């Protein structure tokens, strides 16, 4: 499994390290913040488009072959980004990396369930969770150091080196644990999935640069209509690309929306904070990266704690505690100005990163525990897809709000950041409203007997958020 662990680590490291580099990319390629944010949105969009198809790919392609193809894609994307001479080429390489991560995440968790015997799945998921959690903790700091010592290109060069190691490990050690059944593939669903998600996120993302032009409105409308057709078709056909019947279960649908909102809030803050530190407060990329580290460590520790508390306290109380902390952290961010001390930023960032894991862990667990055994895998994929797509849209909205400030001055950049923080707090308010609709399902998982398959699915759903350690899921 070492190659797959390394591959997923690469994906998470790439996802969380790019925010620090955005100001440098804007200067080097003379692009606006609305254009630069496609380095984040495009990556998540590629993940969201690929994720619904991985289940079928695993049934048609040898697992080892699929994993190697994904890792080679990541390497190609890293090389393209390292050598990019203009922004379109850079974005192309970035989206190739997103396709790789979208394949690697579900492949790793599907392999864990089949490679390890039941009594070792907890330990295997623990390694996977620690791998995923470690990447966002060091990502911004490592990126800041590399940019300070070399340039933003060093980030992609480093990713390329690790990708080579992951390819070697997978080629030498990995097996093919999943039997290929070659079920019927609904090509129309595949096309509708890619077209719908792509048009919707592209349309929202272009608002910051093009406003509500005819093209932008057209993309949003087409995306919404195609996704509606896609959803209808999944309910109608015998072998759906993704079984959406889980969304008809309120005990799953409500926390699924809640965790997607909290994920979008997290990504919005992760997008805004490094830029505000550099453009609003005048810090270097190295210093900004270092200041991101304490909250990342705290986030990891609180993730462990939230996982253990869920079985004892249930979802509602953890969500309420998380909402309270996130609201306090957001309010502190609103108080940051050009001359604010570093201590105020650290306090705001740490407080909000304490609250978010309690929301995400409890809502993800509540959603998956509401599903019957046979729907656990589809539920995990739905959560993964919703988080990536809603997160991409949330980042795009934060970019639009950032543009309302005067980016040419430090004070104007801080003002634009505040609009984005208000948007994050609005998402937290939606989470609070949803908490009153949560249904506490005390299943066998609460009795300390979590099923290995559900534990793996639950850990997979948490993967994109950096916040899940599967030893808690198997405890």
Number of strands: 0
Q: Characterize the quaternary organization of these chains.
A: single chain
Mean pLDDT: 80
Rg on CA atoms, Å: 21 Å
- By CATH, the architecture of the largest domain is named Up-down Bundle
In this structure, how is the largest beta sheet organized?
none
Q: Report how far apart the termini are.
A: 22 Å
Poorly predicted residue ranges:
442-475
Total count of domains:
2
Number of helices: 17
Q: Give the overall silhouette.
A: globular
Organism: Bifidobacterium avesanii
Protein name: DHA2 family efflux MFS transporter permease subunit
Membrane topology: Multi-pass membrane protein
Keywords: Cell membrane, Membrane, Transmembrane, Transmembrane helix, Transport
Description:
This protein has 475 residues and is an all-alpha fold. The chain has two domains: 417 residues, Growth Hormone, Chain: A, CATH 1.20.1250; 55 residues. The protein is 80% helix and 0% strand. Helix 1 packs across helix 10. It is globular, with a radius of gyration of 21 Å. 58% of the residues are buried. The C terminus is likely disordered. Keywords: Cell membrane, Membrane, Transmembrane, Transmembrane helix, Transport. It is a multi-pass membrane protein. This is DHA2 family efflux MFS transporter permease subunit. Its main location: membrane. One of its GO terms (cellular component) is plasma membrane.
């Amino acid at each position: 499994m070492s190659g797959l662990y390394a591959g997923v680590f690469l994906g998470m490291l790439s996802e969380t390290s790019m925010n620090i580099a955005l100001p440098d990319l804007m200067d080097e390629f003379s692009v606006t913040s609305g254009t630069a944010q496609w380095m984040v949105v495009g990556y998540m969009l590629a993940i969201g488009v690929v994720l619904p198809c991985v289940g079928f790919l695993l049934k048609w392609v040898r697992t080892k072959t699929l994993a190697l193809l994904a890792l080679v894609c990541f390497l190609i994307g890293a090389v393209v980004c390292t050598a990019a001479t203009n922004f379109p080429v850079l974005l192309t390489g970035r989206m190739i990396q997103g396709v790789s991560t979208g394949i690697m995440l579900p492949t790793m968790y599907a392999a864990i369930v089949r490679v390890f015997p039941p009594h070792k799945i907890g330990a295997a998921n623990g390694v996977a969770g620690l791998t995923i959690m470690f990447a966002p903790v060091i990502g911004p700091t490592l990126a800041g150091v590399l940019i300070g010592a070399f340039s933003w290109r060093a980030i992609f060069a480093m990713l390329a080196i690790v990708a080579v190691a992951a390819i070697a490990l997978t080629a030498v050690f990995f097996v093919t644990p999943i039997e290929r059944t070659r079920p019927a593939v609904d090509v129309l669903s595949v096309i509708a999935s890619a077209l719908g998600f792509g048009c919707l996120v592209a349309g929202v993302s272009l608002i910051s640069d093009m406003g509500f032009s005819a093209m932008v409105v057209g993309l949003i409308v087409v995306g919404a209509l195609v996704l509606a057709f896609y959803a209808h078709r999944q309910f109608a056909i015998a072998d759906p690309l993704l079984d959406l019947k889980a969304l008809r279960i309120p005990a799953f649908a409500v926390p699924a929306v809640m965790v997607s909102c909290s994920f979008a809030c997290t990504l919005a803050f992760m997008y805004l904070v490094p830029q505000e530190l550099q453009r609003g407060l005048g810090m270097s990329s190295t210093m900004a990266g270092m200041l991101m580290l304490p909250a990342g460590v705290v986030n990891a520790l609180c993730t462990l704690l939230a996982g253990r508390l869920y079985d004892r306290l249930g979802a509602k109380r953890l969500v309420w505690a998380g909402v309270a902390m996130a609201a306090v952290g957001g309010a502190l961010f609103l108080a940051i100005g050009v001359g604010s001390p570093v201590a105020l930023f650290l306090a705001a960032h740490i407080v909000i990163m304490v609250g978010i894991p309690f929301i995400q862990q409890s809502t993800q667990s509540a959603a998956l525990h509401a599903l019957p055994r046979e729907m656990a895998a589809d539920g995990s994929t739905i959560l993964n897809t919703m988080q990536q797509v809603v997160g991409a849209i949330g980042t795009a909205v934060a970019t639009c709000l950032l543009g309302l400030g005067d980016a040419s001055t430090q004070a104007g950049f801080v003002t634009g950041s505040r609009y984005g923080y208000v948007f994050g707090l609005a998402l937290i308010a939606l989470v609070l409203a949803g908490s009153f609709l949560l249904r506490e399902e005390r299943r066998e998982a609460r009795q300390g007997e979590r099923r290995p398959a559900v534990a793996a699915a639950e850990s997979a759903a948490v993967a994109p958020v950096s916040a899940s350690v599967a030893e808690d899921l198997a405890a």
